[in-house]
Structure formats: structure tokens, C-alpha cells
Design a protein that fits this description.
InterPro entries: Ig_E-set, ML_dom, ML_PG-PI_TP, NPC2-like. The chain is an alpha+beta fold. The protein has helices at residues 2-23, 92-95, and strands at residues 28-30, 39-47, 51-52, 56-65, 72-80, 83-91, 103-112, 120-130, 133-146. The longest helix is centred in the N-terminal third of the chain and has 22 residues, at 2-23.
Length: 157
């Protein structure tokens, strides 16, 4: 019986390791739940998570499309406790390789937040537009900014 119990434990461990990457996935929602977007989002990975002020952070968004995309824009809006605080626009081809072929692709945005960025919960809304397509997709998700290395330590006080 010990061998069967050990094998069962090993099998459960192996299965749980398969799902480990999904445990750290960032939840997102589409801006329009009934929207029929050209680009579908598969998942979001933020590294590090939580984001650290003054340090590089990477937002990787895995997506798929049923239509080839030659270019466009990524508009990023950031809110802090519900107040809009920042907007930036990037050419889509700076966030991923263009042209985007039918199938899966990854948008990757790197950002270094200023060291004085306050810690807390933020909401990021990203809208993708394409050449001749007003809205490829629109999503929002929450992320956290933790305490970073600001050059101040307790010994400085």
C-alpha cells in the first residue's frame, strides 16, 4: 500500500506543477464584454510582480489574432485608486514584431517607473488600434507597485 500511496502523491505533485504557471497569471477583463475583438488575449505576465519603483518591469501579453495586422498603436492608460494619472501611446510594432501573422503573438512592454512612484494598486487599460481598424482589442487589469530601492534606508534617518 505504501507504494501506491507514494505513486499517488507523486502523480498529484506532477499534476500540480503543470498548473503552477497559471497560479501567477494576472486576471484581466475586456473593456466591452460583448465586444468581438480581432485580437484575443490569452494571458498576462508581469515581472517582477509586484512591480518595484525605480526598477525595470516587463508586461508580457500573450494574444492571438485571426487576421493579419500590419501596424497600429498601443494606448496605455494608468489609474491609481480610480484616478487617471498617466497615458502613453506606442507604435504597435515597437511592442511586437510586425507584420503580425494570423495566430499567436506576444506584446512585450518594458518600463522603469520613477523611484518616487507611490506603492499601491494600479489599473492599466490597454487599447490596440490597427491600420484601418479602430479597435483591435481593449483590456484592463490591476497590478501592484511595491516598495522600491529609493536610496533611503533606516540608517539614513
Amino acid at each position: 500500500m505504501d507504494t501506491v500511496a507514494t505513486q499517488l502523491k507523486l502523480a498529484l505533485l506532477a499534476i500540480s506543477l503543470l498548473f503552477l504557471p497559471f497560479l501567477h497569471a494576472t486576471d484581466f477583463k475586456y473593456c466591452d464584454n460583448g465586444g468581438n475583438y480581432v485580437v484575443k488575449i490569452n494571458g498576462i505576465d508581469i515581472s517582477p510582480n509586484p512591480v518595484v519603483s525605480g526598477k525595470p518591469a516587463t508586461f508580457s501579453i500573450s494574444a492571438s489574432t485571426g487576421q493579419a495586422i500590419s501596424g497600429g498603436k498601443a494606448v496605455i492608460d494608468v489609474s491609481y485608486f480610480g484616478f487617471h494619472i498617466h497615458q502613453e501611446t506606442h507604435p504597435l510594432c515597437e511592442e511586437t514584431s510586425c507584420p503580425i501573422a494570423v495566430g499567436n503573438f506576444v506584446l512585450s512592454h518594458n518600463q522603469v517607473l520613477p523611484g518616487f512612484t507611490p506603492p499601491g494598486s494600479y489599473t492599466l487599460k490597454m487599447t490596440l488600434t490597427g491600420d484601418g481598424i479602430p479597435q483591435l482589442t481593449c483590456i484592463s487589469f490591476d497590478f501592484k507597485i511595491g516598495f522600491g530601492a529609493s536610496g533611503f534606508s533606516i540608517s539614513d534617518a
